[in-house]
Design brief:
about 110 residues, mainly alpha, two-stranded parallel sheet, 2 strands
Length: about 110
Amino acid sequence: MPVTDYQERVYTLLCQIPSGRITSYKTLASALHSSPRAVGGALRNNPFAPEVPCHRCIAATGYIGGFQGDWQKAPSGQNCEKKLEQLKGEGVRFDGKGMLVDQERWWSDFKV
């Protein structure tokens, strides 16, 4: 599946995030001089997951955010459960309301 230049830039930065760390849509957008919604659009269409770890991107508030185009409050919630499980497997913990527990997990050291 072909990707746009913008998607390629987003995916390149995602690959810099170490396992066990997370970033926000806002932080990625700032590094790219873009918008969080544009980043979310690129992540929604990530054909390279999980090698390109879109699950490591959450909302700037620390909320789990979306995954595969759905937010946790979507009727099924299945996609966010999958994202939570992937992050839990990397040692990133969220509370029962979907909020990040350990603030030391944030990553913003992108090389653009």
